[in-house]
Structure prediction request, 305 residues.
Amino acid sequence: MKTTIFPLTRGLCTLFSNIKHTLSISGASLLLLLCTSANAAPISDMHVFGDSLSDTGALQAIAPSFCPEPPYFDCRFSNGPVWVEHLANDLGVSSNTAYAGGTNWAIGGQRSDQVLNQQLGGYLSSTGGSADVDALYVIWAGGNDFLQNGTSGTYTPNQAAQNIVDSVLELSLAGAMHFLVPNLPIAAPWAFEFNMALASGLDGISSGLNITQFDVFSTFVDISMNPSDYNLSNVSDPCLDETNMTLCTNPDEYLLWDPVHPTAVGHQLIASAALAALAVSEPSIIALFAMTFLLLIRIRRKTLA
Prediction:
């Protein structure tokens, strides 16, 4: 199944408690109903695997000379904290890099095969081969497979998707039960093929597991089609001109920081959408969730502005 058992009291309801004063009575009622609809136990921790979209400072710990320089923020590939940092805060867990004692194994520049063969290997070696059954496992990769392909065609969208599916399988065999697996956003060149293969592969192994397939693609489509709803003025151009190393004057109104990575605001939007996706804990409330999903991430964006 694709639903999760994560607590709305530590997820969606954290967000609700911060924004309920800004909602209409009907909006607050919908959110309150969501908050009281799930029966769940809190997650024990969050383990993250992936690339620069989720990297919270790995290079600072293992290869400081490779950290992106300012105006990039604190060895992140953006101008502020990345999405898993916001999500971890909402869920009451840590997102510190594993290479400095934390639980985030993501490394900027790595491909899906490196996630499977290196990051998961490092995690399982550190635990003696067992995975925490009560933890949330986040796996987001695939973009670098395309970016590093060149003209060789060595990496394919189907193989990249299969690497993610195999990562879920490997962790599940070690005892993991709960997964958050984002797909690729609309800007990714092979997003359609990859996303279809990923969804199909995850559907095929979902029995007995709680897999949340986080649709980043649709989230970015909505943001791109309705930028004003998110207080954005530019959703197509990067704020940072890498050729001249010049910045836009209003980065909080941009979706993209550079041609590949979201701005800090973009990461906040991704985190809000991920939080809403995790909040679905019963099939019977999916319809209600659909009505409140966009409300949540739009209100979250406006309250952070």
Summary: The domain at 12-304 is CATH 3.40.50.1110 (Rossmann fold). The radius of gyration is 18 Å. The longest helix spans residues 286-304. The CA atoms of residues 124 and 130 lie 6 Å apart.
